[in-house]
């Protein structure tokens, strides 16, 4: 809801427009006249367009242009069409821009044609685009537009053939270089792997397993050596006891009693071992075997002594001989086991070095093979692309691939594209109305007279008791009537002249609505 002050403001603006209506109408008429003159003086620009569709016939490879690369194909062919050579040929063929060629170099004329007069843009109807040209002569505009559309088809065929040929040659070169690089990379990897095969990361787990086995084997050798050392000590004790027994026998002692004492001692040793080991322990089994042999030998010696088949000086004790041979075998086995133990220790050290070197080799191998997979993938990709390039090249030679087709040829332009009469007139009316309103408001601000009692009260800060309207004489009324009639007459005459002029210009084709 408007308050009193807002209503007063609106009323004031309306009063200003009514008082200054003649000025505003005058500005409108002047603006329309200027706009009409501007339209008449502006050169007429005609525009014609042709619709071209990109259609796919056969497209077996990725290297052949297809629908998914529609924008790229159009952009490539557009660059060929709008090149200086192509546009210069059109300018010469249709004798375009005669005045500009007289004053500007051909490079500037081509640039003006490319940027201001040629339009190539996608259309909303599928894979189609519009080729348009604008100029001052309708017939020439039609011919140039059709020529541009025809050049699209010609240049597309040429570009496709050149593209697949260049791509095929490029891929072959790239394939050769990729193969050489891949061979060098594989040779370096092969040499490295042969040099550090046992230190490679994939050998770490087998090396650890082998190291564990060697450590167990080394411990077994150690245990065997200890076992042999204990056995040797026992045999040496038995040899000493056997020599004492034989010495007593040589001195005429009772061999049976000496053998019994030896058996008793061995039995004592056996009982002591059984407290620590089982019946299957090698020492236990050996003592049992020695006791059995000793008992058997004592029986044999007693029988030999009774029969007197041998002399005591020629007697060789078989048990003593057997035990001495066992000691010799033990010494030999100790030497052999010691050698094997030392070899095993060397192997353990070697495997430990290999295992310790595995992280270093892993880092070096990672650095060496970091880009191998990329080399390999790139090579395989190039092999496939080389096959596709050969197929695409064969396809383009027979012109069976994708191509452009004119589905809507250019039509003769009957109406100019620019300038637009309605747009210019609307702009003129807007400018005239704005200028008239601005002048009216400016003159009103410069006018210091009071036209309203409320303004006077506000200025004097005194209440107005009454207001007297303007009282005109008969003479002033007649003069005012004549002025109004003259103004209306001039207005009607101006509108008639302006409207008639526009109608005449439309009839003659100078103004096209």
Could you explain how this protein is built, in words?
Strands 1, 2, 3, 4 and 5 form a five-stranded antiparallel β-sheet that branches. Mean pLDDT is 79; it is low at 253-257 and 309-315. The protein has helices at residues 4-19, 21-41, 70-81, 84-94, 98-103, 106-117, 138-195, 204-250, 255-274, 282-307, 318-369, 372-397, 421-446, 453-460, 474-508; strands spanning 45-55, 118-122, 128-135, 403-408, 416-418. By secondary structure, it is α+β, with helices and mostly antiparallel strands. Among the domains are: 4-42 and 421-508, no CATH class; 45-167, 2-Layer Sandwich (Bacterial polysaccharide co-polymerase-like), CATH 3.30.1890. The two termini are 44 Å apart. Helix 7 (138-195) runs antiparallel to helix 12 and helix 8 runs antiparallel to helix 11.
Properties at a glance:
five-stranded antiparallel β-sheet, 73% helix, 513 residues, Bacterial polysaccharide co-polymerase-like, alpha+beta, 6% strand, 15 helices, single chain
Main beta sheet = 5 strands, antiparallel
β-strand percent reads 5-15%
Catalogue the unreliable spans. 253-257, 309-315
Could you spell the SSE succession in H and E letters?
Answer: HHEHHHHEEHHHHHHEEHHH
Fold topology:
Blueprint: H1 4-19, H2 21-41, E1 45-55, H3 70-81, H4 84-94, H5 98-103, H6 106-117, E2 118-122, E3 128-135, H7 138-195, H8 204-250, H9 255-274, H10 282-307, H11 318-369, H12 372-397, E4 403-408, E5 416-418, H13 421-446, H14 453-460, H15 474-508
Antiparallel strand pairs: 1-3, 1-4, 1-5, 2-3
Helix pairs in contact: 2-13, 2-15, 3-7, 4-6, 7-12, 8-9, 8-11, 9-10
């Amino acid at each position: 809801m408007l308050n009193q002050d807002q209503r007063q403001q609106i009323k004031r603006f309306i009063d200003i427009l009514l008082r200054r209506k003649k000025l505003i109408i005058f500005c409108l008429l002047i603006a329309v006249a200027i706009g009409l003159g501007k339209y008449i003086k502006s050169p007429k620009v005609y525009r014609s367009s042709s619709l071209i569709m990109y259609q796919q016939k056969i497209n077996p490879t990725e290297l052949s242009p297809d629908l998914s690369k529609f924008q790229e194909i159009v952009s490539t062919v557009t660059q060929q069409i709008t090149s200086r050579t192509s546009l210069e040929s059109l300018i010469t063929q249709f004798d375009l821009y005669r005045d500009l060629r007289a004053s500007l170099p051909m490079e500037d004329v081509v640039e003006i044609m490319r940027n201001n007069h040629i339009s190539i843009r996608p259309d909303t109807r599928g894979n189609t685009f519009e080729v348009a040209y604008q100029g001052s002569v309708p017939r020439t505009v039609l011919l140039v537009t059709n020529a541009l559309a025809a050049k699209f088809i010609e240049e597309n065929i040429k570009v496709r053939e050149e593209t697949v040929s260049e791509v095929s040659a490029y891929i072959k070169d790239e394939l050769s270089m990729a193969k050489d690089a891949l061979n060098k990379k594989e040779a370096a990897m092969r040499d490295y792997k042969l040099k550090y095969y046992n230190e490679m990361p994939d050998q770490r787990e087998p090396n650890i397993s082998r190291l564990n086995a060697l450590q167990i084997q080394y411990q077994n050798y150690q245990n065997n050596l200890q076992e042999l050392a204990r056995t040797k000590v026992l045999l040496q004790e038995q040899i000493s006891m056997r020599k004492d027994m034989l010495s007593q026998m040589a001195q005429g002692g009772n061999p049976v009693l000496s053998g019994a004492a030896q058996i008793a001692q061995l039995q004592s040793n056996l009982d002591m071992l059984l407290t620590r080991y089982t019946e299957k322990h090698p020492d236990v089994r050996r003592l049992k075997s020695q006791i059995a042999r000793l008992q058997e030998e004592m029986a044999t010696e007693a029988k030999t002594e009774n029969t007197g088949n041998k002399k005591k000086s020629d007697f060789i004790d078989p048990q003593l001989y057997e035990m001495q041979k066992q000691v010799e075998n033990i010494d030999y086995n100790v030497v052999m086991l010691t050698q094997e133990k030392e070899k095993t220790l060397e192997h353990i050290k070697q495997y430990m070095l290999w295992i310790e070197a595995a992280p270093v080799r892993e880092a070096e191998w990672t650095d060496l093979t970091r880009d191998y997979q990329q080399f390999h993938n790139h090579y395989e990709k190039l092999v496939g692309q080389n096959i596709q390039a050969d197929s695409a090249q064969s396809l383009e030679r027979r012109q069976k691939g994708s191509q452009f087709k004119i589905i809507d040829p250019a039509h003769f332009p009957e109406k100019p594209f620019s300038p637009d009469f309605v747009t210019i007139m609307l702009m003129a009316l807007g400018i005239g109305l704005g200028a008239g309103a601005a002048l009216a408001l400016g003159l009103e601000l410069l006018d210091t007279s009071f036209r309203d009692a409320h303004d006077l009260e506000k200025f004097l800060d005194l209440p107005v008791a009454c207001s007297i309207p303007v009282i005109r004489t008969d003479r002033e009324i007649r003069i005012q009537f004549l002025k109004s009639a003259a103004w209306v007459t001039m207005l009607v005459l101006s509108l008639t002249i302006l409207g008639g002029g526009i109608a005449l210009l439309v009839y003659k084709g100078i103004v096209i609505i």
